[in-house]
Amino acid sequence: MRYLHISHSGKTDEIVDHERWFTLFYYPELNEYFLGCLVTWIAHYERYYRITKSDYELYTDNKEGFYARFADELSQKADVCFSERFVGAAVLRDYDGAPRFQDAYPLPDGENNPFQGYGYVDGILYARIVWKDNEILVPPLQAIKNGDEIRYPLREKCELQTDKNGKPICYKLKPEYY
After folding, report:
1. Which residues of 104-141 are buried (b: 16+ CB within 10 A; e: fewer)?
2. Over the stretch 78-94, which tens digit does the pLDDT of each residue have?
3. Is the pTM of this model over 0.85?
């Protein structure tokens, strides 16, 4: 596992599609290509999807083919955009937890934000949440819809994190996986 922050200065080979509001980039520290889709919510942020070098090259050679291949992810429709390609986001609302789950426990002295970057495990950007007495890695919300059923593949390596009253607040990666 690696701890990291995704920053614009770490990106290379960045291509910006102003028409569809996304970027393609290579992140050398991870040796991975990504699709970063801009989400316009209360504040703007990016959702990150893993792509291959050939996907990156497809965009440079055949934009329409790229758009077709990544139609679900580019749509930003909640029922299809959280595909198995979805590996993380710049905000916690796209992670597998209840609203404001990160506020369930006190923070370490001097800290004002429990979201301390990412733990990169098996190609996924788990949100690193640091509380005064605990640190967890929360998976992004991959929700794969198949008919009326929804499958959550990242939960297979996770367990529920509860608040001090025993109420489930989020899923967290089991320690044996990092």
Report:
1. bbebeeeeeebebebbbbeebbbbbbbbeeeebbbbbb
2. 889 999 999 999 999 99
3. yes
